[in-house]
Amino acid sequence: MTDLKPKDFASSLDVRWCPGCGDYAVLKSLHKMLADTGAKLEDTLCVSGIGCSSRLPYYMATYGFHTIHGRAPAIASGAKLANPELDVWVFTGDGDGLSIGGNHLLHALRRNLDMQIVLFNNQIYGLTKGQYSPTSQKGVRTPSSPGGTVEMPLNPARFAIGAGSKFIARSIDTQAKVLGPILEAARAFDGTAFVEVLQNCVIFNDGVFDHLKDKKQGPDHTIVVEHGQPMVFGVNKDKGIRAKAGGFGLEVVSLEEGGCTEADLLVHDETNHALAVALAELGEKGGEPTVLGILFREPATEFGAASRVGLPEKPLSMNEKLTRLSATLRAAETWDVGEDAA
Amino acid sequence: MQNGLEHSTAMQELPVSQQPEVDYVRVRFAGDSGDGIQMTGTRLAESAARFGNDIATFPDFPADIRAPSGTIYGVSAYSLNIGHTEVDTFGDETDALVALNPAALRKYLEGVKQNGLLIIDMDAFTERAIAKAGFSGNPLEDGSLTSFRVLPLEITSNTEKALKETGLSAKDARRCKNMWTLGLVLWLFERSTADVEHWIEQKFHKKPEVAKANIMALQAGHLYGEVADLPPDVSRYRIQPAPLMEGEYRSINGNEGMAYGLYAGATLANLELFYGSYPITPASPLLHTVAKLKELGAISFQAEDEIAAICAAIGASYAGHLGVTGSSGPGIALKTEAIGLAIMTELPLVIVNVQRGGPSTGLPTKTEQSDLFQAIWGRNGDAPLPVIAPAHPGECFDMGVEAAKLATKHMTPLMVLTDGYIANASAPWKLPDFSDPAYEPFPVEQVKDPNGFLPYDHDPETMARPWAVPGTAELMHRIGGLEKQAGSGNISYDGENHQLMTQIRAQKLEAIAKSIPPQHVESGKTTGKLALLGWGSSWGPIRVAARRAELEGKSVSHIHLRHLWPLPPNLEELLSGFDRVIIPEMNNGQLATVLRSQMDIPVESVSCVKGRPFLVREIAKIIDDALGA
């Protein structure tokens, strides 16, 4: 069998996202990563809900199921439980995954079934034409919030930590160098891997992530964390993150002369739960960088394997099943009616 | 067409029950929720079934887990009809009521027939308990029970006395009073305590002291009947075994039968069973039963909500299993959108609705059959869904098989309607013999060959589309809730194609209509003055009343629908042979409305939504009103 190329993972359908949509970049990274890791078309299943991002399965040459609003994690769970050999991906958005489907996302993350959930966070409802979403920044004016929203936005990574997720990563749609390895690590993780992608909606919320994506200034506003590496960031690698002295929390420090040195900085430990909480929240206040990379990864019991304990090791034949069913039915009290019976 | 369903409907006709206390006896146990009433009733039912009697039971318990003791709403009851003739209902009236407290007496006295037997635990009739039950005075002393035969016994203190030597605390000893009572009732029916003793030993094998106490209480109650000087008007019941068809039997309730039947159906389809569910009364025992079939390969999944439960089942079906989900009305309402997805994606899926009183949360523990509209019509878009319904607990197994067969043969979701009565009631059930042609396997063929594969190419006979399962090489395709292009299955917003696909979905039901057995007459002639048309659990009372009326020479037939949607094609012709068609149903006339929309027959509706099945006398009155007494 010849090795598949990224383009082999693309279906024959024309991609119909808006020109300039961040989804194109994610799709491209996905195709490349699947090709690079030797994924098979027939063993890959892409499940999605409703929304712009949920169109993704149509653009994959793999198996795909474009389901109903918010329910993709549940449908994916059923498919994976039925066939553990499948490589199952869920594609969802901030509305699909965190609003109408919040409950399913919560429980999927908690159970830790081996699949990947990629949440495209564009902080807006795109397909329904621009209403605010659960992740929209406070005060944003949209057709459904002409005076500006008064809701506090939800932080997807923090939600995932709260739900008990064992793999939490964050990336920017167009940063293939960050996103590619994250998708690969997510695929390799034996459990539910949650990947938030900060994704630009060119039509209804254009530019919300520009300060993070900007080629020149972006590095001052983001930090890509790596397990075992000190937390250094900035255009000139002159900023760092350290634990607040005498209390909880993180703070940004300067590495310029007279300031801190690398030795003062935190070294990323992706198995540290408390650190993951702090990293997920970073970037919500001015001067803090938004954290990209794998925020948290901790091996834990995989739901599928655990729930299969007690099932027959190999599928039973029809005859064997009927024999066992007959015995089960007769485990209750039975009696005979007939000439010999009392 | 021979199938599992016909197997069960071809049951042997037993003689018609006519004389109470001779042909059959109706007993009701009633007491506090914590008195072990359900267990006592179940034991007597098992014991009677083993003896060879026909039985019909009706557990009736409060929605509260432990309602305050002594209250009317905290009363739990178990009704049981034991016959040597065919008994299909738990009985309109009670021949013997066992009341373990004043509230139980107050709640169920009305159902006791004139001169019926009241077995009463006097010890529970304290001033406070009498007042709590709402009696103005002590009914045992104020002469209000003179039209009954009253047997007031010191059940609690007799139980305590019997267990004195065991060293059990008085409180623990009192907990055995249900077994003392059961012992007495077994004596009343001239039955030994051996079966129940054996059951107790097994049930409490880890707690031998509990087993011992229960057995001692049971024996003491039995002995009490033997030696006590009971009033002369208390006579024992002598109910001979019923002439049931030869074979091996057990008792089964509808939920158990349905769970086992679905497993058997998936197996005969050569598929694995996946059951996705969220706990809800009265459907939860389906989940519990499938969960116990893990060693047999059945996967059960308790989802986070009703929607996830059906969605997981759809996902499992997509991946090649037989996905099944079960719930009750409110849960089915939540599943509605996903049912539409299963219709659009044409995946096999079985949805079991164990109906209860509605709308909304309604009457969770009370039975009703008012979700027929929801089943047939309750979705957005033109969304045809086949609907079938077993008539009684003993038919649920075969209906589970039938559901799996239709869903896989035609690649469609399908709904099975049972109800709280069928789910909880138990009856003797002849164990299936899988070598019987009725259980001939119907293995599903999942597509493997990529040549000419089109995911939405329909078989002209069954209207099934090919089932290509993820993991199969070269058959990768995408499905979803958006309208499909006929053939390719790609998204299509084309109007002409939507017209075609709407037609194809409708034709799927037409194909099913052609494959289901023609409607037959349950009892009576195929033409006549009156047809009583029923579906689901109204079967029992209609059957008893219709057969009795027929014995009296009345022209009445009983027709019972198992396939509700699509309707059997010969139904209109069959009904047209009757002067009048009356539909008694436990809703406000839903089947009648459905039939009026489908055929030119002037059907009449009689409704009963009282949280219980029809009484036989209510059906008898319908017959009398129609034909003259």
TrEMBL record, chain B:
Keywords attached to this entry: Oxidoreductase
Ranges of residues in domain Pyruvate/ketoisovalerate oxidoreductase catalytic: 34-221
Pfam family, one: POR
GO molecular-function term, one example from the UniProt record: oxidoreductase activity, acting on the aldehyde or oxo group of donors
InterPro entries per UniProt: 2-oxoacid/accept_OxRdtase_asu, Pyruvate:ferred/Flavod_OxRd, Pyrv/ketoisovalerate_OxRed_cat, Pyrv_Fd/Flavodoxin_OxRdtase_N, Pyrv_flavodox_OxRed_cen, THDP-binding, Transketo_C/PFOR_II
Key word Cell cycle present: no
Domain of life: Bacteria
An annotated GO BP: response to oxidative stress
Domain Pyruvate flavodoxin/ferredoxin oxidoreductase pyrimidine binding span(s) in chain numbering: 274-435
Official protein name in the record: 2-oxoglutarate ferredoxin oxidoreductase subunit alpha
Species this protein is from: Pseudovibrio denitrificans
